[in-house]
Model the fold of this input.
Amino acid sequence: MHIRYVMVSKAAAILTEQDVMIFPPITIGHQMVERNPSLVDWQQEQWRAWSATFMPKCDGILIHMQDGWADSTGVGDEMLYFQQQKKPIAYLGADFWSDPVELNRTLLRIEYAKDHSHDDE
Done:
C-alpha cells in the first residue's frame, strides 16, 4: 500500500503543478492513518462513505493505472459513481511523469474528457 501512496502522491503533485486540481483519497487517507492509527481498522464501507462525501464536488475522476488498480474495490466504486453521474473518467499511465510527451497527452485527455463528458445527453 505504501508504494501506491507514494506513486499517487507524486502524480497528484505533478498534476497540481500543471493546474489540474485534484483530490487524491489515497494520499489523504494514508496521512490520516499515520496520524490516527485506529483508522487502519476502518472497513471498506467506512472508507467508501468518507470518499463519497468528496465525489459530488469533483468534475471527474483520474484513474492512476498502477499495479492492482483494476482489482481495487474502491476504484471500482468510484468509477461506477462517475459513470452514473455522467462525469468524465480519464486514465493515467503508471509512470506518466517520466515522459514529457506522455504528460502532455495526459493533460490533453483530461481536458478532452471534461469538455465531452455530457456529449451523450
